[in-house]
Amino acid sequence: MKVIDHLNKAKGTLLSFEILPPLKGKDIRSIYEGIDPLLEFKPSFINVTYHREEVIYKERGHGLLQKIRLRKRPGTVGICAMIKAKYDIDTVPHLICGGFSREDTEDALIELNFLGIDNVLALRGDATKGEAQFIPERDGHAHAEDLIRQIAGLNKGQYLYEEEQEAAPTDLCVGAACYPEKHAEALNLTTDVAYLKRKVDAGAEYLVTQMFFDNTKYLGFVERCRNEGIKVPIIPGLKPLTTLKQIAFIPKTFAIDLPDGLAKELVACRSDADVKAVGTAWCIQQARELKAAGVPCLHFYTMGRNDAVRNILSQVF
Ligand code: FAD
To answer: H-helix or E-strand containing 211?
Structure first.
């Protein structure tokens, strides 16, 4: 079932979460172990992230370095198909522009269609390590907006080459990302929201936010979007902080601010256990407030920390 149908039919706030494919070489059990403890909360859909290949250098002795292109977390589509078959839960594979030509994208969409997957989250992806800015693939898309337009086109039966134009349309529900505190590269929130409107006009049926820790930022952002004519559901994305390491990288990596109340408690933390206690309590508070405000769905970035998410869900749903 499509995410937009879940949202339209919902009587209250839905639950969804995002998981990462395991590192190459790890087996699928880590995915079961991530999902099983959360099943009792009846997630409406599960997102599975996509990870593009990275360039790494391996020491080969005598001062020689070998350049290797490696996808560290393959398996997005396979995991989505497995979740549907094993758990009968709808899935949302993430699809990015980076590393994909338009033809690669078309083939990936055909594959999703054949597997009976009804959804896709359309993203640009980040620059690869070593690149100063995002560089699209030759004949690939520079922005999520163009990817969304291609998916919307395929939903009307518009394939890339003329002889296939009479071919069967796909029927994929398209979601897109949004940033309550603006995307890191955006000049400001005004330009970012203007581009966001273009993604919606191109065919995005709902939006999922970047993680945030201050609900007033989300609520203000939704209001701003509504004023700019963006009417689709905007699903808040929440992440419980659980380690000292996350405090160091999350604000910089995701260009987000931690509110004073949370920052004050975090600076006093001396161990991962301290951070987990503070981060979980904060996330419970955020989730309760958002649910009371009537958000369509609460989306959790689990990042493998399902015990913290489970604790939160047991107190919110
Ligand atoms: P875009 O919408 O293309 O925006 C990127 C930047 O360009 C913004 O600054 C925007 O203001 C600007 N812009 C947008 N459209 C235009 C235009 N037409 N012309 C000029 N400028 C424009 N990354 C992954 O690699 N894999 C994942 O699975 C993944 N999942 C994610 C899930 C969510 C919910 C979120 C919020 C992010 C996710 N990301 C993922 C990260 C995402 O790929 C990065 O944040 C990326 O830098 C931007 O992606 P986007 O789709 O928002 O890009």
So the answer is: strand 206-211
Is the beta carbon of 76 within 6 A of some atom in ligand 1? no
Task: Give me 312's structure tokens.
Answer: 């939160």
CATH of domain 3-316: 3.20.20.220
Backbone dihedral region for residue 61 (phi beyond 0: left; psi -120 to 50: alpha; all else: beta): left
pTM, entire model: 0.97
Nearest CA to ligand 1 atom 13: 195
Domain boundaries, given as residue ranges, for the chain: 3-316
Q: Is the CB of 237 under 6 A from ligand 1?
A: yes
Q: What is the pLDDT confidence band of residue 165, given thresholds at 50, 70 and 90?
A: low
Task: Assess whether the C-beta atom of 195 lies below 6 angstroms from ligand 1.
Answer: yes
Residue nearest to atom 36 of ligand 1 (CA): 210
pLDDT at site 150: 98
DSSP states along 126-185: PPPTT-SS--PPTTB-SSHHHHHHHHHHHTTT--SSGGGTTSPP---EEEEEE-TT--TT
Cα of 268 from ligand 1 centre, angstroms = 33
From 135, 183, 298, 302, mutation site for ligand 1 pocket: most ligand atoms within 8 A of C-beta? 183
CB 80 within 8 A of CB 89: no
* pLDDT beyond 60 at 312: yes
DSSP 75-137: -HHHHHHHHHHHH--EEEEEEESTT-BHHHHHHHHHHHHHHT--EEEEE--PPPTT-SS--PP
Convert the pLDDT of each residue in 191-245 to its tens digit: 999 999 999 999 999 999 999 999 999 999 999 999 999 999 999 999 999 999 9
Give per-residue pLDDT as tens, 33-82.
Answer: 999 999 999 999 999 999 998 888 888 888 899 888 888 999 999 999 99
Cα of 141 from ligand 1 centre, angstroms? 12
